[in-house]
Amino acid sequence: KSNFDEIQFQSNLQAVFDDPKKYKESTSGIGVRIFTGFNFNEYIAVEAGLSKFAKPDFSVTEKITNADKTTKITTHHKGNFSTLGIDIRAIGSYSLTDNVFIRAQLGAIGWDNKYASLNVAKDEVVTVTEAKDRGVSIITGFGLGYGISEKMAVTLDFEKTEIAEIPVKTIAIGFSFKL
Fold first, then answer.
1. What's the rounded Cα separation, in Å, for the pair 113 and 51?
2. What pTM does this model have?
3. How many Cβ atoms sit within 10 Å of the Cβ of residue 100?
4. 154, 146 contact by CB (below 8 A)
5. What's the pLDDT at 96?
């Protein structure tokens, strides 16, 4: 689950949408990462992965009740923050018991991002502006793992990076299989 607490979908934070229009946004969600890796020894590994990050979004909707008492919800504006990333990470692990280990990671992530935002002019005209950006950021993390068997482990990691100048914090559950 990724969290984008500092994302701002509105350029004018004073913008207020009066009834019956409603502004709604989400700043977190669930993404997915597929990876492969190589263990050099029990302490050091390298991973390369492909990530589809969570997609925070916003919408401006209006609930309209018709004369026949039926209601209709109309979406006036919507947008999101969509990111695809490719990463490479160095992973350090240290066993606490036969099955439990701690881990730390450091790597780089190349990302491709699409970002929509609301722009509210002084005359209160609202438009949605879309932007695309690409870049490379450092990714760091630490976590805890449990070896289910010699060939399988489950991990819980906290990761941090920055995408399009927005800090991203992720809690990841991972499943590793040795071939």
1. 12
2. 0.81
3. 11
4. yes
5. 97
